[in-house]
Amino acid sequence: MQIGVSTGFADRLGIDVYSALDIVSSTPIKIVELWTVFYGKKLHFNWKDKTEIQKIKHLLTTLGITVYSIHAPFSYEYDISSPEIEKQKKVIEDIKEIFFVAEEFNAKVVVVHPATKPDTSRRHLSSQEYFERLTAAKYAINEFVEFIIKNRLNIKIALENQLPHIMFSYPNELLDLITSTNPDIVGICFDTGHAELFNEKNILYNMMEQMKHHIISLHISDTDNKTDNHLVLGEGNIKWHRVYEILHSVNYQNPFMLEILTPINGKDIKESLIEAYKRAKILLEDW
């Protein structure tokens, strides 16, 4: 199994995509997930600028790096589950453009947050408010599926499991989205840190077990069970051999995608990525 890394760490360092890719090139990692926006605040790269797309493609070729996935833009207000029609329309149109960009990079997957607004879980909203957001999310995802089919794009959508206080953090919610849209095109990006932050015994592994047949992408990071700090695996509380066992049970063959945003104490991001790669390699050595 290939080991990849998200370029999301650039946000913490205040650097651009070119510098992030240079850092990745100095590690053994040769496959990436490209972020498009830093939490809705700053463009990682301008996906609307064809010249910039070509510059990044040239750099990727020069560095010998391939793109497996693109992370669609998101923020607290930039949300496909928004019941506000004009806001949702803007998000849908932007993400449709991302599908073309993904095709340009020969990426296989676009990672989409099915919701991002805080305090939108079932325990935070009324039944009516929850239903409105659920309906909006299903509408958006069906729009994406129809767009992909109409344009004959070789792209899949990976819906990312969210943090506990946000909609679509539970397996049944995500599985409902998949079965009500198109399971051939829509799957799951399983974020280990998000699941672990429920702080319930074995919940990460139970969630992963329920969703394992639909996982097409991963966000691999550890956590101290206090914050979504995206630590190097082994720096938190996750039992990685159990994650391995579940992935192995379905013969998962897509990249083991690291999403490391916090360096190891005393190390810089390059050193931390190299260490994360080494630990992942040991974990996966029998694969």
Tell me what you see in this structure.
The chain is an alpha/beta fold and 287 residues long. The chain has a single domain (3-269), classed as Alpha-Beta Barrel (TIM Barrel). Helices cover 42% and strands 15% of the residues. The protein has ten helices and ten strands. The protein has helices at residues 9-13, 17-25, 50-63, 85-104, 127-150, 171-179, 192-196, 203-211, 240-249, 269-283; strands at residues 3-6, 31-35, 37-38, 42-43, 66-71, 109-112, 156-160, 186-191, 215-219, 256-258. It has an eight-stranded parallel β-sheet with strand order 9-8-7-6-5-2-1-10. A two-stranded antiparallel ribbon has the order 3-4. Strand 3 (37-38) and strand 4 form a beta hairpin. It is globular. It starts with a strand and ends with a helix. The mean pLDDT is 94.
Task: Summarize the model shown.
The chain is an alpha/beta fold and 287 residues long. It is globular, with a radius of gyration of 18 Å.
Order of helices and strands: EHHEEEHEHEHEHEHHEHEH
Overall CATH architecture: Alpha-Beta Barrel
Report the CATH topology name.
TIM Barrel
Order of strands across the widest beta sheet?
Answer: 9-8-7-6-5-2-1-10
Could you tell me the number of beta strands? 10
Strand content: 5-15%
Task: Please give the structural blueprint.
Elements: E1 3-6, H1 9-13, H2 17-25, E2 31-35, E3 37-38, E4 42-43, H3 50-63, E5 66-71, H4 85-104, E6 109-112, H5 127-150, E7 156-160, H6 171-179, E8 186-191, H7 192-196, H8 203-211, E9 215-219, H9 240-249, E10 256-258, H10 269-283
